[in-house]
Every structure is written in structure tokens, then in C-alpha cells.
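Take a specimen:
=====
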Amino acid sequence: MIKNHSFFSKSIVHYSLSILLLVLCFTVIRLFLSNYTNKSNNELNNDKSSISSHNLVEYTYVDDYDPKSLSGLNNSTLIYEYMDYNFNHIYKSLVETPMDKESSYNKSIKLNNTFDLPRFKILDLNDLEKASANKANSIFVSFNGNISTNFIYKNGEYFYYKNKEPFIDLSNNSYLKVSNILIQMCDEEFPNNHTVGKGNALLFQGGKFIEIKWDNEIPPIRFYDKNGNDISLLNGKTWWLITNKNTSIIYN
């Protein structure tokens, strides 16, 4: 009996080629997915924010003119400042790690729920130095003539001055310094961090400032430059002042 060995040989070859093609296809797909994932991760890392609402805890401080009432502000990632409808001087602090009770000297500190924030891209200091912007080493903000907030730019950061005196956080006995200052100008008489609307704003960083816009018609709030591009922040603390028409703002 003569067997058709060539038929079986061809079948085996075809089967082997099919398996090889499948392996190659799976390999190509895995490489593609791996590259895509790495690219996506890199884009996320490059786009990550110096401020993110993820895992942040919000504390509310009411200034009662006692230095202890603001202890713990130095732990902040972001600090809001504004006057409320009772003319209280409010500071809201977002921190990554909840503070110990020993760090809180005042009962006016309350734990609130975290809320969504805009996603700011991180700005490289070298890029900022090349950017065309006006210089501003001193910032003076007066809310009602009696309460003032001042900043002096030194050694790459803005030192916070309260009522013309450098502020020292008693929780760690150190000066309070920030990398970015946002001043949001509102039409509302008593604006806060949830104010809806749009208007003008100022951004100070690296000893320079630019005029920008804010829009919170549809939260989260957005800050953008004259070209419509979202602003970027330097890595570090950010101070966010929310002001009305009666607020005096001077910088030089």
C-alpha cells in the first residue's frame, strides 16, 4: 500500500505556519498594547497636576487674630482665602494627610468633604524664566481696609505676610511659603471657592505675573490665558485668593 506522505507533510507545514502566525499576531498585539499603555502613563505623568482633588482633605480656618488660629496652614497643598458674608476672614486648606489633633489649636478647624478641582499641568521653572511676563516681587491685597494679605518673593518662593508681618506657622515654627498665587476677581459681594460665574484673574509665579481669565459656569473652575490655553502651575503650594470689587490689589 502506498501512503500519501506528501499530503500529511503539507498539512503539518500548514498547521505549523498557522500556529506561527497566531503567535506572531499575539506578540504584535502585546507589543502594541504595552507601548500604548506606556505612552498613556507617560502622558498622564507629564500631565499630572501639582493640585489634585484625589485623597485631599479640606480644613476650614476662621482667623480670630490669634496666631494659633491658623496653625497647620503650612501643611497645605492649596490654600483658599476670602471674606464670608459674616465678614469672617476665611482660610480653607487642602492637605494630603489629615493633621494630628496636636497640630490644631483652634476649634474653628472643621473637616469637610473633598471636592473636585481643576487639573493644572505642572510648569517647569526654566520654561517660566523664558516666558514673556511682567515681574512682580511684592503683592499687597486688602479685603476691607483692616485685613491685609501680603507676599514677598524671595529665593524662588513667595513668603506670606499677615498684616505686614511675616507669618510663622506655630505647628512647625516655620515661615509659610508658596510657589503660586492665584487672585480670582469676582462680581459677587461675598464670593467663595464655589462661586459660579466668570471674570478676570491674576497668576503670580516665579517672580512674574500674567493676566488671566476664570470660568466656573460649568464646574470645575477653569483658568486660562489670553490665548484660551489652560494655565500651568509650578510644583509646590498654591495660594488662591477670592476677591470682590471692594478688594484692593497692588503689586510691583
Summary: The two ends are 105 Å apart (CA to CA). Confidence is low (pLDDT under 50) at residues 32-48.
